[in-house]
Description:
signal; CARBOXYPEPT_ZN_1; alpha/beta; 8-stranded mixed sheet; 37% helix; metalloprotease
Amino acid sequence: xxxxxxxxxxxxxxxxxxxxxxxxxxxxxxxxxxxxxxxxxxxxxxxxxxxxxxxxxxxxxxxxxxxxxxxxxxxxxxxxxxxxxxxxxxxxxxxxxxxxxxxxxxxxxxxxxxxxxxxxxxxxxxxxxxxxxxxxxxxxxxxxxxxxxxxxxxxxxxxxxxxxxxxxxxxxxxxxxxxxxxxxxxxxxxxxxxxxxxxxxxxxxxxxxxxxxxxxxxxxxxxxxxxxxxxxxxxxxxxxxxxxxxxxxxxxxxxxxxxxxxxxxxxxxxxxxxxxxxxxxxxxxxxxxxxxxxxxxxxxxxxxxxxxxxxxxxxxxxxxxxxxxxxxxxxxxxxxxxxxxxxxxxxxxxxxxxxxxxxxxxxxxxxxxxxxxxxxxxxxxxxxxxxxxxxxxxxxxxxxxxxxxxxxxxxxxxxxxxxxxxxxxxxxx
Length: 429
């Protein structure tokens, strides 16, 4: 009976899919008026199967947070035209729900107002989010201001021909190296905002602990990795996640670049083979020019990298390898947990009392194969690697208000001090 009901649900959704479409305004931007975000508690396999059926229908549903075994929750954004059907599904299958966001467009509008109200004195600040062009202009200014300790690098070109740019900060030769890749998922704007602030602090802060970080380690930082997707998220669709390369077998565009790396690619259901899915792994490993460019660049400097970090949002997680399995753990997993505990404790001690959860990706969150951190860890033998999922827990999700940029940055710096210190104590630096 349950199986027949599931088939009926799927048939209903497929028949109705053409009825719902994303609306755009006069500027061509996708609007999310009255789109709601729900937190669903998953109590059984049938409920999970229902979610798996609907989650690839992007014009109706967009997953904000995937299902994980730890919380047994999923966050899902629902098209207002689909609310009645969705409510029926919730009732029939007995989902427990909580409304997280009443109207996604209101959050986006507030975000845009903050940008308009931000002082336009030509100075880069961390009271608003910036577009790619602004970030690149700021980077140029950084290189001009600090020529003796900064160096520009390019890892390659995106599908649409944009240059993927990075900055190396080095005060002296022979330092251990720390690599940061940010904004691989386009809609996670807090990541590039935090990365640029972190760069600024390494160069300008007088805090002794920050000076220690800056001067005794070489930093390789890519503020915006998914440049095509990031540009698209600003110009067209705030909720865009993937790259922008078309898929030959589908009308759907883009690949999840963080599932496209050739390390346990597509294993254990850790990515999707559906081009319309938000976690589509691509037709082959390294199908995305951005992923291939990053892999080639990091390989070329692998002997200089001791720690690899990937900035993401949201959920407040510090995730170490492995992502492809929850049944196996790295040989140095105890050390990774110890470093993670230092990161978590340091952030928790701040007045915000923000709580991070740490552990292997697959064991504390969900199976995710083909990620950057796992590839660097498994293939290049860089034995300290983490995915950092920034604020928050879902109240704002990907549309984190600009007023929270600086608090998030402060948390990252506090956590980074602890992470680097404990890594050094354990012999990784």
